[in-house]
Amino acid sequence: MNTRTFKRLCCAFVCATLMTATASARDNHKHVPRFKLPPRNLILIVGDGMDDQQITIARNYLVGAFGEINLDRYPTRGAAQVLTYEEEAPHRVAYVADSANGASSLAAGIITSTGRLSTTVGDDADAVTIFELAKAAGYRTGVVTTSAVTDATPGAFVAHVAERACQGPADVAACGVDAKVNGGPGSIAEQIAAGNVDVVIGGGAAQFNQVVPGAGKTVLQLAMERGFQHVTTPAALEQVQGGRVLGLFSTSHMPVRLLGAAATRFTFDAANNPILPAPITCTNNPVYVNGSMPSLADMTDKAIEVLSKGNKRGFILVVESSSIDKQAHARNPCGHIGELEQLDEVAGLARDYAGDHLGTMVMVTADHGQSAQLLPETYFFTPPAGSPAFSSLGYVARVNTQDGAVMRVGYATSSGFLEEHTGVQVPVMVYRRIPFYLKPYVAQPELFFVMKEHLGLQ
Amino acid sequence: MNTRTFKRLCCAFVCATLMTATASARDNHKHVPRFKLPPRNLILIVGDGMDDQQITIARNYLVGAFGEINLDRYPTRGAAQVLTYEEEAPHRVAYVADSANGASSLAAGIITSTGRLSTTVGDDADAVTIFELAKAAGYRTGVVTTSAVTDATPGAFVAHVAERACQGPADVAACGVDAKVNGGPGSIAEQIAAGNVDVVIGGGAAQFNQVVPGAGKTVLQLAMERGFQHVTTPAALEQVQGGRVLGLFSTSHMPVRLLGAAATRFTFDAANNPILPAPITCTNNPVYVNGSMPSLADMTDKAIEVLSKGNKRGFILVVESSSIDKQAHARNPCGHIGELEQLDEVAGLARDYAGDHLGTMVMVTADHGQSAQLLPETYFFTPPAGSPAFSSLGYVARVNTQDGAVMRVGYATSSGFLEEHTGVQVPVMVYRRIPFYLKPYVAQPELFFVMKEHLGLQ
Fold first, then answer.
1. Interface predicted TM-score of the whole assembly (ipTM), two decimals
2. Residue A358: exposed, middle, or buried by beta-carbon count in 10 A (0-12, 13-18, 19+)?
3. Which of A183, A441, B76, B413 is the most exposed place for a label (fewest CB within 10 A)?
4. How much is the pTM?
5. Which of B374, B400, B17 is nearest to A370 (CA)?
6. Which chain A residues have a beta carbon less than 8 Å from that of B72?
7. Which residues of A28-51 are buried (b: 16+ CB within 10 A; e: fewer)?
8. Which value, to the nearest 10 degrees, does the dihedral of the CA atoms of residues A261, A265, A266, A267 take?
9. Domains of chain A
């Protein structure tokens, strides 16, 4: 064949190949679906009062000092500085937060004063929450907690009030200008009933059974009129298939999983030596063994199922283990260990869910530090011969662990009936399949922007 | 041109091109140096007792609640579980470490009992340290500390003793079988003098001025015979150009940078209300202002200069800010804040050095937790009307901060003259330019293996 013929054949072959490829690409376009971004979901898990002391104490008890809990397997960890302003001097820093202003930093990216829920210090304005932004962008929203659903942590995501004690319509004094009778939006329960949150599960039936002034109906009745399915038993919760859910499993806060004696002040013998309290063994609360009460993991499982059902946009779910804090206030080590175990189960299932769902981020953090300290069982320093032995200056409990050892836990922040919070920076753990870098040190309100960014909210 | 001629020309062109390329590659091999791995260096910075409470308290004082210290800018952060065995029951877990067994976990990757320095619990065997492995592999080694250089943290890297109090030849009773007179390797000071560590800088002249039994010479004289340059002033330290250095800047531990009153127990008024101690303002220790004492950063700067000089293999340097712990034991907030500031300066300069030196890793961590807690300045809970106000059950200090606020710090782990340690997991920060992933939760002995891996030690 001569050169010209060769060139012509060549051209014919190349052209044919190109045309076939183009046709094939067109066919593929028809038959192979374009890669679609999955729904973006965010699961924020808040351990109320869950600082590093709490985590270490719980780990040692639950899996032994050599073990790992689910929290330890999160691939990214950082620390968050909690920021608080004083109510009376709105630009003066206070170094210790409560659950209200800590949750407001997470929910709305603001720094505010203790007691406030997504309202600003100084001018008492409503700060736009991530739930409001998410709803406007078509996401579904939910809160699950072991406290009353009107307590501070869920409250900051679902309501705006100047004072966290404004939980039900009966709390008129606490509500002040937020009370309906004073022209406000009403208490947290009333704002849940009137609002657009899809899933609200926890304790706190008392607030929903109160009558709304002027309406002649309870908050619960108003909530059901707005489409909430009201459930009060694990079996009823299990039956829920979708839609809006209001699960209320106790009058106030839900019971704790692990029971045991609270810490005690040292007593002293005749020679003024401290008498060590006997080691305690934690026991399981029967209501969680016999299934009459759903665990935090049970409630979270259902919330994820309901929120994700037929949902192509995505959801934001806030899960709180509330009584880590409440049991530390009460100086009860079994109590806060069991509630950290509940949180850790949720950290495990949420991590699994995010592993199966590309667009899901899980963030675990705390709102503020707590009082408990892991003390030495044998003190390093000893007094001069003949002097009384040294003891903690506060309350002490000694807990039997599966290491075959005794773990001593102390609480000494207050002479009062409840311990106080501390101002320590709190841990943050994050998991997401899509590559992600968390700055290892953040101010707590920055986490709001991390979450907002993940959901692509403006 | 016909097809054959075209093919021949083609071949000639391709062959010529290939030959030229090969020749050019050969030339380049001659003139362009092969990329060489830089020296591998490791700077381990230990904040004795530096837990998250300590870091938060220091940050709030040093830069304000909204500020960031150098530690906060490390790109990788994790938590380390401190592991301790009981001396009397060698496989039973104790939940609170001391500096000795914590440092032994870092230095030798072992879990041992409190008081032990790189010796094993149960059989008192010497555990091979990372300094020994590094020396065998041709690295240079150094320790810098604000304590006596024979104290626990440096001690675990430069010696093997069963009891940390075995610091100088006069400590025969504490040394027991480790004493030279009992056929042992001698105290920590003697092991430094007889060993091969290149740089030893800190306090602790007392131990080196003791006479070694049988030798008729002081430990210092023996050390100088083995090539150590002995320096005792900042000016003399500055003059050191290389070789081996023994810097001893105080008889025992070095003085602290920030001075201020220690915390006090609450006193009470006639109505039994606690009387708040007056807020204190920390002041600078003149010895660090007038330059008569080198800062931890000064000593570290010189150590890096000496260790890296003409060193193509690399070095391992351990820097300890020791009195974070000692000042927390003594309930002195200014003291531990100032020593954390010293550590933070070192964290900054080491980070800069690693930024300029590709093969360098910096790791910052603590050996164990401490007692101090950041308490609320205004208590959340109030007593019934007419009852005394609530107070901490321990010692309390109130510190003026640059936020224009007062930060309250409490200590309540012991009725004795010194506070106790706590068992909380401790922070770990790492920086290295070569991509590196730190598992965010590790057992403390694992950090030994991370360091060993970085240096390529077997």
1. 0.92
2. middle
3. A183
4. 0.92
5. B374
6. 440-441
7. eeeeeeeeeeebbbbbbbbbbbbb
8. -100
9. 49-265+284-371+425-455 (3.40.720.10)
